[in-house]
Amino acid sequence: MIDQLKALAIFATVVDKGSFKAAALELNLTPSVVSHHISKLENKLGLALLYRSTRRLSLTHDGDILYLSAKAMLDAVDSGLDKVMGTGETLIGSLKITMPSTCSDSYFLTHIADFSHAHPKVDIDIQFSDLHHNIIAEGIDLAIRIGTLPDSRLMVKKIDMLHSIVMASPDYIAKRGVDLADINHPNDLADWDFIGIAQRPMNKIFILDEGEEFVLEYKPSIVVDNVEAAQHLACKGLGIVSPPAFLFGDRLQKGELISLLPQWKMKEVPVHAVWPPNTQKNSLTKRLVEFLTK
Question: pTM of the entire structure?
Answer without folding.
Answer: 0.62
